[in-house]
């Protein structure tokens, strides 16, 4: 089956305005119209804004595609999302409509996220955002930072990204421990870290870094009790998913000055301009940059173009079946 009629494609959440230049969209042919949307589409406007499109191209989990919205998009025939998995897309609802779902390769997201994790540790320990501002405003040294050598890092999760963070942290002289529900002493030893209890990890670490997948069992896994166990002045790093942490408990601890935080992910993204986290001097914030690198985005968009072309030929690639 071919799809040679005029086709409208929407590339959603192109925040940086780079999608058009990172792949050859013109190769799809003159009958394909591609619109690049740099601003997030509000949920209340999504059905009306996206109704004309046969193809939606999603950047990771930025735009949720639930059953209600899918039902309101009668022209939709193909969804391509970047990365290997996307829990914000109701694949079952798409399949029930006969809509094809494809993904892309992952790129260097795991490596880049591990690097950003370490960058946030350093930024918190050396007060870098404040000192950047100091220099920009014509002033000089205003803070005393802390070295990482000899400090303790506790990893909540020792998967692909957590293990890479552990390797870099050890090279910096940090002592590394880890905990997760299924972590065995053998796996921890293979990763060169010590397995500890969840309680000990929070109580004894100078830095706690989260590296877990968001699921019903992990939502809010860092709650008020865990944050209360953390040492005075300890650093909490989250480059995984915002809802792993009880946001209200985190904000309260930061306001009291009990801990510091380096955060790349949030309960609501983009983070609202008036969110209290933006006003806390002991919170170092980045706008979900973990996987955002040029090489990864080039792979994402090249794979997206390939997926659209293959679907039009009736031979879709990287089809998501579950």
Brief overview, please?
With 322 residues, the protein is an alpha/beta fold. It has twelve helices and twelve strands.
- Please tell me the overall pLDDT: 96
* Structural class by sheet pairing and helices: alpha/beta
By CATH, the superfamily of the largest domain comes out as NAD(P)-binding Rossmann-like Domain
- Report the major sheet: 7 strands, parallel
Tally of distinct domains: 2
CATH class of the largest domain: Alpha Beta
User: Which stretches are poorly predicted, pLDDT < 50 over at least 5 residues?
Assistant: none
Tally of helical runs: 12
Spatial strand arrangement across the major sheet: 8-7-6-9-10-11-12
Query: What is the string of helix and strand elements?
Result: EHEHEHEHEHHEHEHEHEHEHEEH
CATH fold-level label of the largest domain? Rossmann fold
- Measured by DSSP, the beta-strand proportion falls in 5-15%
- Work out the radius of gyration: 22 Å
Question: Architecture of the largest domain, according to CATH?
Answer: 3-Layer(aba) Sandwich
């Amino acid at each position: 089956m071919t799809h040679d009629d005029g086709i409208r494609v929407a590339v959603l959440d192109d925040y940086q305005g780079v999608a058009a230049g990172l792949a050859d969209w013109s190769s799809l042919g003159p009958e394909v119209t591609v619109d690049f949307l740099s601003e997030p589409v509000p949920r209340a406007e999504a059905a009306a804004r996206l109704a004309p499109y046969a193809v939606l191209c999603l950047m990771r989990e930025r735009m949720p595609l639930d059953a209600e919205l899918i039902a309101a998009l009668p022209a939709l025939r193909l969804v391509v999302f970047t990365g290997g998995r996307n829990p914000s897309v109701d694949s079952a609802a798409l399949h029930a409509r006969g809509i094809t779902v494809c993904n892309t390769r992952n790129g260097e997201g795991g490596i880049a996220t591990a690097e950003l994790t370490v960058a946030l540790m350093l930024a918190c320990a050396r007060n870098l955002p404040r000192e950047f501002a100091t220099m920009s405003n014509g002033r000089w040294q205003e803070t005393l930072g802390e070295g990482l050598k000899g400090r303790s890092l506790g990893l909540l999760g020792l998967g692909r990204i957590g293990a890479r963070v552990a390797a870099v942290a050890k090279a910096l002289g940090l002592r590394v421990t880890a905990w997760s529900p299924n972590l065995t002493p053998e796996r921890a030893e293979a990763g060169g870290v010590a397995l500890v209890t969840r309680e000990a990890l929070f109580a004894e670490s100078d830095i706690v870094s989260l590296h877990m997948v968001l699921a019903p069992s992990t939502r809010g896994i860092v709650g008020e009790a865990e944050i209360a166990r953390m040492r005075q002045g300890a650093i909490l790093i989250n480059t995984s998913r915002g809802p792993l942490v009880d946001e209200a408990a985190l904000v309260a601890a930061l306001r009291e000055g009990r801990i510091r935080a380096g955060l790349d992910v949030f309960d609501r993204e983009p983070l609202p301009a008036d969110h209290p986290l933006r006003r806390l001097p002991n919170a170092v914030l980045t706008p979900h940059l973990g996987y955002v690198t040029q090489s990864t985005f080039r792979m994402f968009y090249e794979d997206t173009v390939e997926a659209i072309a293959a679907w039009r030929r009736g031979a879709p690639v990287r089809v998501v079946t579950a």
